[in-house]
Design brief:
binds D-glutamic acid, 285 residues, Rossmann fold
Length: 285
């Protein structure tokens, strides 16, 4: 169903960038967006009531996200939305754009094209949730941009949850992490995997652990910077801003906020949000 455009009369100068993920993974993208858009206001939304997205049936997840955005767009009136989640982007981007044609959506999809351009061995692995690995979108990316490479898709069923635990300050079992990433490391005819695409926004939080326990050194490709650049270019297109898309000269702006659909992120998450300068936004219901 196509939705009506909300009343954006006093926009765009105060309109925030809305960053969305199933959990805290999108903070790895927010971190980069802030570097490039230091004067922007951000709203971070985590659908933690639905976490993890990796195991959801496609249709049910699609419906859930579209419904959620019906409310989020009306409430926050963002200038642009960044879907900082591969599992959601590879499923629902087209549907979101069709349902809300007045809004620009930047997606986060596996960085298969840059990996194919950079690999020297021709062996690339894509580390993602089981959902992202199953998506037709991901298989199309390989066919379109990496047909000359050997691309190994690795669906990790526990890593997003382990990343959440790690970032909460809990001890994680490195042997369990190693078990999840080991299928990424392929040796074939004297060649070895040299690039692993981090195709879940939770995984950059574990990058140091990955580097420490990896069977051999590889490039861990994090798409956050590319997403930030894409966001700026779309903002400039719609708002005609200068280089950095700087918008917020006044210091009387409201705080950046975070909304969690459960309504009750635990203490460790609230502390993390505070560290990111995000004020926890209580929602009713
Ligand atoms: N952060 C999400 C992504 O980029 C996945 C986490 C989940 O399984 O919900 O795919």
């Amino acid at each position: 169903m196509i939705k009506e455009q909300p009343d954006h009369d006093n926009l765009p100068d105060k309109a925030p960038v809305l960053v969305f993920d199933s959990g805290i993974g999108g903070l790895t993208v927010l971190r980069e967006l802030r570097v490039w858009l230091p004067d922007r206001r951000f709203v971070y939304v985590a659908d933690d009531a639905g976490f993890p997205y990796g195991d959801w049936e496609e249709e049910a997840l699609c419906d859930r996200i579209i419904k959620l955005f019906d409310r989020l767009l009306a409430e926050h009136k963002p200038a642009i939305v960044v879907i900082a989640c591969n599992t959601a982007s590879t499923l629902v981007l087209d549907d979101l754009r069709a349902a809300f044609p007045f809004m620009k959506f930047v997606g986060t999809v596996p960085a298969i094209k840059p990996a194919a351009e950079r690999t020297r061995s021709g062996l690339v692995s894509v580390l993602a949730t089981p959902g992202t690995v199953r998506r037709a979108y991901t298989h199309d990316l390989i066919q379109s941009f990496a047909s000359k490479c050997h691309v190994k898709l690795v669906g990790a069923n526990l890593l997003a949850t382990l990343a959440e635990a790690h970032i909460r300050g809990e001890r994680i079992d490195e042997a369990q992490v190693l078990e999840q990433i080991t299928p990424c490391f392929v040796e074939e005819d004297g060649r070895r995997t040299d690039i692993v695409v981090l195709a879940c926004t939770h995984y950059p939080f574990l990058a140091n652990v990955f580097r420490k326990i990896a069977p051999w050194p590889v490039d861990w490709l994090d798409p956050a910077e590319a997403i930030a650049r894409r966001t700026i270019s779309l903002l400039q297109e719609s708002e005609g801003q200068g280089e950095n898309g700087k918008m917020r000269e006044n210091s009387d702006h409201p705080h950046d906020v975070a909304e969690f659909t459960s309504g009750k992120p635990d203490f460790a998450i609230r502390r993390l949000l505070q560290g990111f300068g995000l004020q926890f936004d209580h929602i009713d219901g």
